[in-house]
Amino acid sequence: MFRLALAMGRPVREMLASMGSDELTEWMAYYQLEPFGDYRADYRSGVVASTFANAHRAKDANPFRPEDFMPFLEKKKPQEEIPLNVARFKAMFSHKVAKHG
């Protein structure tokens, strides 16, 4: 409800006062098909970031996904995957770093 109210630029109570439960149910179904708001914008940014990262990753590194660049989703991932994603990101540029020593 809050995402819909935000997208409509209306307070939740005002939106609910002018909308029947049938219309609210339809909006909820529509959101399942076509998410709008910040989640969709973050996904689009993740697509751009993963495209860039994949274009510059080491040949033996696993490809990145848009979700890898959506930090709020990492809360849902098992804790062992977070360090793995950090390591993958560092490996992306490891082939371009000069070895000293």
Compose a concise summary of this entry:
This protein has 101 residues and is mainly alpha-helical. The protein contains five helices and no strands.
Describe this structure in words.
With 101 residues, the chain is an all-alpha fold. The chain has two domains: 2-33, no CATH class; 38-94, no CATH class. Helices cover 58% and strands 0% of the residues. The protein has five helices and no strands. It has helices at 2-8, 12-17, 21-33, 38-56, 81-94. The protein starts with a helix and ends in a 7-residue tail after the last helix. The model has no long low-confidence stretch (mean pLDDT 78).
Strand content: under 5%
Unreliable spans are none
The secondary structure category is mainly alpha
Number of helices: 5
Radius of gyration: 20 Å
Specify the helix fraction band: 55-70%
Average pLDDT, all residues = 78
The biggest beta sheet, please? none
Short descriptors:
about 100 residues, single chain, mainly alpha, 5 helices
Task: Summarize the helices and strands and which ones pair or pack.
Blueprint: H1 2-8, H2 12-17, H3 21-33, H4 38-56, H5 81-94
